[in-house]
Amino acid sequence: MKQYLFTPGPTPIPSEILKEQVTELVNHRGKKYKEIYGEVVQDIKPFIGTDSDVFLLTGSGTSSMEAAVANIVSPGDNVLVIRCGFFGNRWHDICKAFGATVRTIDVEWGRAVNPRVVEQRLQETEGEPIKAVFATFVDTSTGVLSDIEELGGLLKSYGALLVVDAVSGLGAVEYKMDDWNVDVTITASQKSFMTPPGISFISLSDDAWEVCNNNQGARYYFDLRRYRAGYDTFEPPYTPAISTVFAIHKALKIMHEETPKAIFARHERLGRATRAAVTALGFQVFAMNPADVLTVVKPGDESGIDPDALRDHLARKYGVLLAGGQGPLQNRVFRIGHMGAAESFDIITAIAALEMGMADLGYPIEPGAGLAAATEILRGK
Ligand code: PMP
After folding, report:
1. Which end of the chain is more exposed for a tag (fewer CB within 10 A), N or C?
2. What would the DSSP string read from start to end of 37-103?
3. Residue 28 to residue 170: CA distance in whole angstroms
């Protein structure tokens, strides 16, 4: 059966990108690889919104999260983690593993952090300065978009570094590392970049480099000083995932052809259409400040809809793969990814499948209501 992948990472990969992975390998210390690495970091910079160097790490998004912590945090340092979902908690766990004294701001899942609350916490801890604040651009478990721009503006005067997990969102939603005063940004290949998982990216501000250079913590594979040492000639310190680098090289060319502006507008439309459709079908959008890259969908409390049963049914009968809830949201929500190569008719497919699955399972539904709401927006109204 044909499969329709709506997971919010990995995402569907256009065939011209996929086939890059099966081309002949090159020597990663040779001219060709260096040219490609150079173009990849150049092409990804406008999406990260930085003029700083961007380093490519072999490892999924979590490896770049670990690299950020390993290079910024020394044992005993005070750090502040904003936890507003499953991935905020990952920052907490990594910082703990590296011996930091971790303070948290726990935000109710579904809501974004209020940057003023972060500022207040920094004021309260002035006696024991916070070295870095860890945040998440889009937490893929809740679908919430955080206001990194406001956060960066507020943190500036407190001397704490701002470290942002932008694995979700970056590449599909505008992100401006330099203008927003972000010190460390990490992202990965398998979501908005339409590339298989396995590589990730990290970029540091000058302030973050100063901290990195003086950091006392243990690190080896992810010691960013090793990556910087060969960066001028795009010499990687170790053997990179060459095939995946070929793939993202192609993906970035395609993305620049479309232009960042058009990509952001496309995602805005797809996000709006999906939210309108699920709302018309009687569901709730879980996020208060929803990102345009995925929609976290919650059945009404009285609806009797079992999200995992519905997902299983859609996968088995129609080959439509939605993602389930994570952590405390397990079997309370389902998630529809619409990032990367997603287009209007992907949304139509997902919503039509939802309507068919609901009808099959005898859940209350007004046939066509979701499609009507989606098409109205997808037609450009
Ligand atoms: N942060 C966010 C927001 C994510 O969505 C993910 C992946 N779902 C990660 C971090 C971890 O990335 P990976 O699974 O690539 O290690």
Report:
1. C
2. HHHHHHHHHHHHT-SS-EEEEES-HHHHHHHHHHHHPPTT-EEEEEESSHHHHHHHHHHHHTT-EEE
3. 27
Q: Phi/psi of residue 185, each to 5°?
A: -120, 135
- Asked if residue 238 lies in contact with residue 335, where contact means CB atoms within 8 angstroms, the answer is no
Q: Which of 14, 47, 21 is nearest to 198 (CA)?
A: 21
C-beta separation of 126 from 174 below 8 A: no
Mutate to test the pocket of ligand 1, among 56, 62, 82, 187 (most ligand atoms within 8 A of CB): 62
Give residue for tokens 């397990």.
Answer: 330
The Cα–Cα gap between 209 and 72 comes to 9
pLDDT tens digits for range 299-338? 998 899 999 999 999 999 999 999 999 999 999 999 999 9
Gap between the Cα atoms of 55 and 224, Å rounded? 8
pLDDT digits 0-9 by tens, 74-123: 999 999 999 999 999 999 999 999 999 999 999 999 999 999 999 999 99
Strands 161-165 and 184-188: parallel
Report pTM.
Answer: 0.98
Of 198, 199, 342, 348, the closest CA to residue 258 belongs to 342
d(CA 185, CA 75): 21
Q: One-letter amino acid identity for 294?
A: L
Rounded to the nearest angstrom, the gap between the alpha carbon of residue 85 and the centroid of all alpha carbons in its chain is: 13
Which letter does DSSP use for residue 221 in this model? T
* Radius of gyration for the alpha carbons in the chain, expressed in angstroms and rounded: 21
| Cα distance between the two ends of the chain | 34
- Among the listed residues 298, 297, 194, the one whose alpha carbon sits nearest the alpha carbon of residue 255: 194
Give me the residues of the chain with pLDDT under 70, please.
Answer: 381
Supply the DSSP string of 131-143, one letter for each residue: -EEEEESEETTTT
In the block, tokens 């298989």 appear at 196
Residue 365 Cα to ligand 1 midpoint, Å, equals 34
Report the pocket of ligand 1 as residue ranges, CB < 6 Å: 9, 60-62, 87, 136, 139-140, 165, 167-168, 188, 197
